[in-house]
Design goal:
142 residues; alpha+beta; twelve-stranded antiparallel β-barrel; 12 strands
């Protein structure tokens, strides 16, 4: 192979990698069933509404805090707890969301579709961690 071709291929691969990585740093978006943006979650865990106002922060340890840094809730493994440490519900690994009485509230599917207990689409959270989508749609914490 000639040097020109090798350099061209290196640049092409680098360009592709850069384009793909840009997608991963964009904000994650939660949308309603009409596909309107409800909130975005950036890479720092900041949750912003459609007016770009900060409404919450989700920390890597599972703490969900309000804009004044007060604890709202916590996601502990698959358990959602309020600020008083009372169990609000559970998020199963398959995306099924249950309340504290183990009644099914709905499900977050791997493609990001969110359905309620009646199987009606209530929103979309493509690329959003399942637990964040569940907390938003079923526990109204953010």
């Amino acid at each position: 192979m000639n040097d020109f071709f090798v350099d061209y291929m290196k640049r092409l691969i680098l360009t592709i990698v850069m384009i793909l990585s840009l997608g991963s740093i964009q904000a994650q978006t939660i949308r309603n069933s009409n596909n309107s943006v409800l909130v975005t979650i950036n890479s720092n865990g900041e949750v912003r509404n459609s007016n770009n106002s900060l409404v919450a922060r989700i920390n890597s340890n599972g703490d969900i805090k309000d804009p004044n840094n007060r604890l709202i809730a916590k996601i502990d493994d698959n358990t959602v707890r309020n600020s008083n440490n009372s169990v609000l519900g559970y998020i199963n690994n398959d995306g099924t969301v249950k309340n504290s009485n183990l009644s099914v509230l709905g499900r977050v599917y791997s493609d990001g579709t969110v359905r309620n207990a009646n199987n009606s689409v209530i929103g979309y959270a493509k690329g959003v961690p399942m637990k964040y989508a569940a907390v938003y749609f079923f526990f109204n914490l953010i």
